[in-house]
Amino acid sequence: MSMAIEQAKIAKDLGEIPVGAVVVKDGQIIAEAFNMKETTKNATAHAEILAIAKAGETLGRWQLYDCQLYVTLQPCSMCKGAIKEARLNALYFGAFDKNTEFKLPETETYGGIMEEECTELLKNFFENIR
After folding, report:
1. Which one of 74, 99, 111, 122 has the minimum C-beta count within 10 Å?
2. What residues are labeled active site?
């Protein structure tokens, strides 16, 4: 999760909502990404989507059944769909999103990982833009 937080900090420095994600296989990071919606002017450029795409490119396949995703914020419904389609075997996220209902029965899910750090990063970002 520490590496996902580092990715979120890069997003913050670029004026993006600070969400970072990493994909891990066999204990090694194979892909990392951060939110790029504002930079790319693309509504689908969420950290999770970008990290999943990079992992697929790295492995040469779209099925990530032997990989885990770490993300600093509880995924939205679009990202949940991508996680399910990629067949990731586990999801770990930091901050809870009170606006998101979360159920992914196909994927082991663990929330609240380094929650305080992840939540604080988001809170500070939004306080500074208001």
Report:
1. 99
2. 48
